[in-house]
């Protein structure tokens, strides 16, 4: 039974219906206006970044994108952002902070792109910078893990005041297949690895790593359920003193 639950989580996290982040962004934020480029080198299709409103409140939206068709998936490296993607995300988030606009990040990525060119362009340094800068942004930040959230590539967009997960999503240091390959030289033992890794969102909640586990149904009916929860949380964030917010954010990550 435990294996069945683990398989449901793994399959659900990687479901094709979660790969089209553009659709989800528009469902949640119909007036979303996308920004492009990192102002250093180029753009990255794996990162969606821009501004929108939700019930009259301005919001900055950052999302990872795996893509739908093969051509788009190749352009996004199957949802693995390049350094310019992380730089773009940080540029837009810092702009939001200057205007006192809260930030919502939506994550579905196996991790940062591991190619040689990405490393040459400072992938590790960019991830470290994003983590450091996000912890200091003087606006509320909410992260929602929709599917996969792999390693530093996800953490670079998830240094938030609260992190939520869908019940069939994963937040891991590496993929179960990667774990199995390292431990037993056999990626087919991914389910066994996933059990050892405790990929269950409810377990992560008990450890204080995430604050809320959401039923998959929040994505139904044009994601109205998720939209309502985001709106409610942003309103609560507005009532918190910024100094207290930052202190709690720092304390949240120090305990890890």
Automatic annotation (TrEMBL):
SUPFAM superfamilies named among the record's database cross-references: ClpP/crotonase (SSF52096)
Bilayer-spanning residue ranges: none
Domain of life: Bacteria
Domain CoA carboxyltransferase C-terminal stretches: 2-236
NCBIfam families tied to this protein: AccA_sub (NF041504)
Protein name, as recorded: acetyl-CoA carboxytransferase
A single GO BP: malonyl-CoA biosynthetic process
UniProt keyword list: ATP-binding, Fatty acid biosynthesis, Fatty acid metabolism, Lipid biosynthesis, Lipid metabolism, Nucleotide-binding, Transferase
EC number(s) reported in the record: 2.1.3.15
Single Gene Ontology MF annotation: ATP binding
Keyword Transferase found: yes
Any single Pfam family the record assigns to this protein: ACCA
UniProt catalytic activity: N(6)-carboxybiotinyl-L-lysyl-[protein] + acetyl-CoA = N(6)-biotinyl-L-lysyl-[protein] + malonyl-CoA
GO CC annotation terms, alphabetical: acetyl-CoA carboxylase complex
Biological or metabolic pathway of the protein: Lipid metabolism; malonyl-CoA biosynthesis; malonyl-CoA from acetyl-CoA: step 1/1
Originating organism: Lactobacillus kullabergensis
